[in-house]
Amino acid sequence: ASGGEIGLVQEGDIISIDIPNSKVNVNVSDEELEARRAKWVCPEPKIKTGYLARYAKMVSSADRGAILE
Fold it and tell me: Could you give the 3-state DSSP secondary structure of residue 15?
């Protein structure tokens, strides 16, 4: 949800997984990724009330450790 490459993957994209180097790459040109990033919109949360919604508002993104701030 932070606008990284995983969120920009579309049906039919080829993904390379390099286990020894712990890398996952989308085999799409940089220009195409930038075009997708420009059109990308963060999806609305599915749960809008209750404890889970409160947690979602207070937690950092997964790329930063998903910790409460």
Answer: strand
Model pTM score: 0.61
User: pLDDT tens-digit profile of 21-33?
Assistant: 988 889 999 999 9
Under 8 Å between Cβ of 1 and 61: yes
Q: CB–CB of 60/69 below 8 Å?
A: yes
Distance of alpha carbon 36 from alpha carbon 32, whole angstroms: 6
The token duo for 21 is 């180097």
Spell 14-40 as b/e; 16+ CB within 10 A means b.
eeeeeeeeeeeebebeeeeeeebeeee
